[in-house]
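Q: Here's a chain of 329 amino acids. Please give me its 3D structure as tokens.
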Amino acid sequence: MRMSLGESMIVTLFGESHGPAVGALIEGMPPNIELDLEQLIDDMVSRRPGSGLASKRKETDDVEIMSGVHAGKTTGMPILLLIKNEDVRSKDYSFLPYQPRPGHVDHPINVKTEGAADLRGGGSFSARLTAGLVAASSISRKVIPDEWVVEATIGALGGKEGEDGIALAEQARKEGDSLGSRVDLVISGLPVGLGEPWFDGLEPALARALMAIPAARAVEFGRGVRAGEMRGSQHNDKWGKGMTLSEGADGALGGMASGAPIRVRITFKPPSGISLPQKTFNEISGVMEELAIKGRHDPVIAPRARPVVEAVARLVIADLAIRGGYIDE
């Protein structure tokens, strides 16, 4: 099984949530890209657990650069990024695999691997592996020009914005439950034409990568599902003077950048790991039994998913730019 993103610049994730380490292998990174280690630290801090609405798992998320970098610059060779796991509690998952958690991948991957998978904390399917995505994206920041801006914000928690959403998430945490959420992404400054036709267009490439983020359940571009209620005369964006588009216009047409900002909304389901007791089948006893999960979990996804959304988008844009000849390899 492979866990790779990209074609010209390929990022492959590895590791398990409760294994020795997680990380990423970057292949196809252009040479002579300067590293910004302070930015790398900032990016990892923005994603890591241990504070706010995040899981109370304590991880420093220090990134060890094992290859592909010399004298502060990339060499053009594969870059191996290693992030050690330091705060695991595997005993919290002693009920696996015989009593799979509701909403988790425990049962499907156990069947697929004939019992070989490491299920602790979600194993290779855990959001813990997004640390590798954020690290890889941080290393690649200077691959794309500064004017290509990728910015994600927390859109809503439980359908509510701002302090109302935070209050809902805190209430869910106190009740041992979880909450759905949304991250809003804006990509601006891309050159007109960037992107490939059909399956490697901006929207298809971004959608595929964003939907791979754990707990993502919907990706909407531009007007999203509201477009299904509109007429063409309402939805069509007119080309103005200088071939500019009006505010809110689609940022990509035919898979290629139109010159307008690309606006994306990514909806995340409530985290499946909750301490509230739930009923699930126990393969040993042969009956439905109550299961109360003791692990440390996020009550809501968006706060920690925000930097991951940015990271994924940046990696997709960099890969498409290299493929399209907008960036020298």
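Q: Can you summarize the key feature?
A: The mean pLDDT is 92.
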